[in-house]
Write a structure and sequence with these properties.
Chain lengths: 204, 75
């Protein structure tokens, strides 16, 4: 339960009752007063109860950091997380032993985790964030690999004078290739197929 | 393993109290059967099973020293 509408004789009472039901304290909630209520005559006639909506406000980013810690802990991987926020983009840098297990083949596991983290982070917050989950600089290394793959495949396309299709990749990896070849005068790139099989095609 | 599944799923659904994970051991694999509140089914499966796939990928990666394969059955 993260949101509750409560009523009481006064606004104050309504808030208190909501806090009790949510089992939380005032500094962790956002309060919207829907109706301030009316005292009425002698507190009996024509009185209107006060209604408030109380929402548990939480720090999405910190909560999500905890979530990553819990997940990795349950996988028996001990990680330290470094979180950086840049506008509405959040980067979680994981490091620790056995991190390879978390990355998986071609970053499969890391990408799956990133997707789950993205969902967890944006689940019930008002602010929308984009997320990168990185492990021991994997994303940076992958970027270098993809950039060199891009130029190699572009050469191949030119040499064969034929379209070259790459293997399916997630959107942010395709973007790396698109931008790597954007300045390349002799080839153009586009994506083909539907997710999750969407892949890059390099056309001479 | 059960805790891992529960942690992940709890972060996705609206009714975390309704998550049930049961474990059955078969000859060659260990099957984890996951059920969630009726309203949350879509949230653990996702469009084209995208979320379900992500959950499975992470869970399968966590298989540590157990010799058996693991399998996650959703609903």
């Amino acid at each position: 339960m993260r949101e509750l509408t409560a009523s009481g004789q006064t606004v104050e009472e309504a808030v208190q009752s909501a806090l009790e039901q949510l089992n939380t304290t005032r500094d962790q909630v956002e309060i919207d007063v829907i109706d301030e209520g009316k005292k009425g005559l002698l507190g009996v006639f024509g009185s209107k109860r006060a209604i408030v909506k109380v929402t548990i406000a939480k720090n999405q980013i910190q909560e999500t950091e905890k979530f990553i810690k819990e997940v990795t802990g349950n996988m028996n991987i001990d990680v330290t997380i470094q979180t950086t926020v840049d506008g509405n983009h959040v980067t979680y840098e994981l490091s620790g032993e056995n991190i390879a297990l978390l990355i998986g083949k071609r970053g499969q596991t890391l990408n799956a985790l990133q997707y789950l983290v993205h969902l967890a982070l944006n689940k019930d917050g008002k602010q929308f964030y984009t997320v990168t989950v990185d492990a021991e600089g994997y994303r940076g290394r992958r970027r270098d690999t993809l950039t060199s793959l891009a130029s190699k495949m572009a050469d191949k396309a030119i040499r064969l004078n034929k379209k070259v299709a790459l293997e399916p990749m997630p959107a942010f990896e395709r973007k790396i290739i698109h931008s790597a070849l954007q300045e390349h005068g002799k080839v153009s790139t586009y994506s083909d197929g539907t997710e999750p099989h969407r892949h890059i095609v390099i056309k001479p | 393993m059960k805790a891992l599944i529960e942690t992940i799923v709890a972060s996705l659904v609206d009714h975390p109290e309704d998550i049930v994970v049961t474990e059955t051991e078969e000859d060659t694999k260990i099957v984890y059967h996951l059920t969630v509140n009726q309203e949350d089914v879509g949230k653990v499966i996702g469009k084209n099973g995208r979320i379900a796939k992500a959950i499975r990928t992470v869970v399968y990666a966590a298989r540590t020293d157990a010799k058996k394969r693991i399998y996650l059955d959703i609903m």
